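note to self: dont lose this again. the chain is below, predicted strucutre after it. 805 aa total, dont forget to put it in the shared folder this time
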Amino acid sequence: MDTLYNPDGVEERWQQAWEAEGLYNADPDAPGEPYCIALPPPNVTGELHMGHALNASIQDLLIRWHRMRGFNVLWQPGYDHAGIATQNVIEKELAKESLTRHDLGRDAFVARTWEWLELYGGIILGQLRRLGASLDYRRERMTMDEAYVRAVLRWFVHLYDKGWLYRANRIVNWCPRCESAISDLEVNHIEEDDTLTWIRYPLADGSGHLTIATVRPSTMLADTGVAVNPADDRYRDLVGKEAIVPIVERRVPIIADERVEMEFGTGALKITPGHDPMDFEIGRDHGLEELTVIGLDARMNEAAGEFAGLTQEEANERIVARLGEQGLLEKQEPYRHAVGHCDRCGTRIEPLVTLQWWCDMKELAAPAIEAVRDRRTRFFPDRYTDVYLNWMENIRPWCVSRQLWWGHRIPVWYCPDGHITAAEEQPGACGECGSTELTQDEDVLDTWFSSALWPFATLGWPEQTPELETWYPNDVSSTDRGIIFLWEARMQMAGIELMGEIPFPGINIHSTINAPDGRRMSKSLGTGINPLDTVDEYGADATRYGLLKMSSTQDVRFNVGMIEEGRKLANKLWNVARLILSNAADARPAAEPRDVEERWILARLDATRELLEESWGRFEFAPAVNALYRVTFDDFCDWYAEAIKPRFQDPADTVVRSTALAALERLLILLHPVMPHVTEEIWSQLPTRQTRRLIVRPWLEADPRFAADAAALQRVQEAAVMFRRSGVLPPLDEDEQRILQAVERRQVAADGDPTVEIERLRKEIQRAEGMLGNERFVERAPADVVEAEREKLARYRRELEALTG
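---
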């Protein structure tokens, strides 16, 4: 073994070896209980970020652990086609050539997207290889591959045939830049400074006015009502009357609705069903007209009359000026509030009523709610159970259509009479009237519509494949809390609906790693940290260790010190392995302990195994890596290795060598799921282990033989601590003294602090000299006992001289 451990080259070599030797490969016919995790599909245009790295470290740990336990393991890789994100990337590329997608046309644009992805897409799986991810890379899938497309179309037609999919005008989050509707869950609400404008709406009967407050005066042109809370005594007498919307002079009803917040503004709310989600719901419940005065480009449209073509800011200025002229502007004041922005491009969202495809979610949600309530599906940590249930029990219709060209085109065809035919393949004629004049819907499906099928479509559904039979349901889904609703909930609904059972029994919601200053990690904010940089500097094993140690709570700050600790652990492990192997001679591993330190370390390793199994079974990773650090650094290296080091000088002591090899093997097995590369490198150099990889070595079985020895060194450890604190050294038996002496020698070599050992030797010399100076002892004690004391005194004097010079 080299003097120093350097992960450069070692990690890449083992990754190539494991993959080339087929050790990641999954076979549905292989023996063992199935265990499956489907990698949450990263965007096909994405790169590895810190959240990916943490989640991959967690999943790989679980996969490696179960592989060693004899399970028939599949870690399924793949990508999401990422409709909006990918289309944005390609449109930016086209802009460099002064082109738009409309210049190319739909077919050419899609072809251009595939060409670009062939060159630049899908790099993240290669980056996951650098982290040591033991995915079955042969099974790579993408939500746009031919078989997966078939699954998505089957899912759509299934929902349509059940009457849960319908086309309707409803309010959506419209992104003017992406020119598409986006999900509520893909809107970032960002605090902005704005102006709150107080406007007087005259009462239609001429008896006065009521005042409303708004941050969007331009939308008043589409007002179709004014609402107050029924419990608000200020407006009780006005309910049922009419108000006049200024400028457009529209008479609108004054209605009562409990959703109105009495504390906001004046407590009277202008109702604009075409431009506000809550107003839309109130308007539908009260039968109000739905008008829109803002177009898909976010400018005022023709319905805005004289303001048509203006930006909203320009319209606001003119409207406020007009209100001032008419004496209807009461006041304006600064106002800070959260404004929705597109998660993909950062553009301000426009709530607009548009014609879209919707999925009614109530019946889909009911069995998925029940699965979590009866604990067939469990969240870890459990607090997310209520988060999930609250959203599911108040679930709203899902807008599944997107106005994009990249994605799964909606499998619906229209005839000239407006009849709808939904089919997995293009029909020859209208299913209702028989017309052959058919036009396919222009929209594509929401990306999350297809990823809802991930746990089983990646296994071959809708075909009944051996993979589907073996690995569905999967065993766990590990993800960030930000996509509980976007993905986890939808996989539950799709799995139960199409497969008849839950997609997995466990959902692990892993930590969110923020920047060191507590802000979210973001390239645009300059707070992002590339995990590949830490892999380059510290190694993949150290990076994995550090990320797992950070995952102690749901929100954590990135701490490079924990990754540095991982590197120190790898080096410490390397050094102790060199010590044992350099002294192993011809020994072979055998857990046949003789002395107390050997029984103790085997007991400590078994206790650590038990702790790991309990922690990993609960998806708690920080306590487990802490335990691995303690058993390696403190127990194995600082106590056990130092205690046995002097025994290596005795060629006849074969037990110390065989037991040390056995103990090292056990430590490597425990560490492997967290730090696979350095452990495999050491394992390959153990006697008789060169041809059998650690990655497939069976996990440790419980070993009760040494349980009674778990505290065997406690007295020695307490004695060392006591002396350092108080200067008092309690009495120890001969074995305990031997171990303390060996450990103190290491302390002397490490930091030049021989205090405890010097004091002990002086006391031993004083005791021996006293006994041998006692004539009665020398005369009456057996000759061999007296001689033994003389030998001890001579040895103690030599050791003291060696320490003090």
